[in-house]
Amino acid sequence: MSKKSISYIITLLLVTSLALFGAGCVGNDGSEAEMQSIMIKGSDTVLPLAQAEAEVFMMEYPDTSVSIIGGGSGVGIAALIDGEIDIAMTSREMKGSEIENAQANGIDPVEQTIAWDGISVVVNPENPVSEMTFEQIKAIYVGDVSNWNEVGGEDREIVVLSRDSSSGTYEYFKDEVLEGNEYRADALITPSTGAIIQTVSQNQNAIGYVGVAYLDGTTKALAVDNGSGAEEPTSENILAGTYPLARPLYFYTNGEPTGLALEFIEFISSETGEETIFEVGYFPA
């Protein structure tokens, strides 16, 4: 075959492909399939779970598009209130003031529990401290303790890391561990859970808190004791209810979910979806 003939065939294939693309996707029955899409935004804790679920979902349903953005629970809730997204993902319940703002804007938030998570208090693997009580963690985070030797460690200044106030994990940790007290003024505020993992893995003096799905071996998760004995953040302890820092994770929609949003939420609770929840490191609702 001549080079001219080969060139002609390649050109014809390209034109045909572009024509098919412009006409839309073609379904299995030969009919044109219209692309469906939803936008999800919010919690960095829920982010890896939602991304993993979306990847599997779109492989099974190639005529769909699920776009996911992190930023924190508060960011997702604000976007839902403003009508910018289809689903807000959060690691805390919506506040009464947020629900009032939503309703004033014509939005009716409906809550869906999609999974359960455990919060891990993490330190550098070189840190000799392996467990702490709630009282010790609280003392560090409110500013009463500033040296590791006060909690069984070496004579080193503690570098305290926290998420920002838009994070649901920030709110949960403040309520459950700090008992509503304010974080110490010199705590280093990080924009994402990944930033906490990276900093703690590189700084022997650092301490932070993250969702269990972010544990990757570069940090050490402490066993924590709220008065009933120290428990590690293992799947067995979280499922048994003995690990004290476990919580539900949520999706919020405007009204009862419909269309692709409903299909995606139902997929998460399916057998395939629950397998993905376990694989990511969370636990089915």
UniProtKB/TrEMBL annotation:
Record-annotated PBP domain positions: 30-271
Gene Ontology MF terms: phosphate ion binding
InterPro entries found in the cross-reference section: PBP_domain, Phos-bd, Phosphate_ABC_transporter
CDD domains attached to this UniProt entry: PBP2_phosphate
Keyword presence, Protein biosynthesis: no
Keywords assigned: Signal, Transport
Keyword Cell wall biogenesis/degradation: no
PANTHER family: PERIPLASMIC PHOSPHATE BINDING COMPONENT OF PHOSPHATE ABC TRANSPORTER, PHOSPHATE-BINDING PROTEIN PSTS
Name of protein: Phosphate import ABC transporter, phosphate binding protein
Native organism: Methanococcoides burtonii (strain DSM 6242 / NBRC 107633 / OCM 468 / ACE-M)
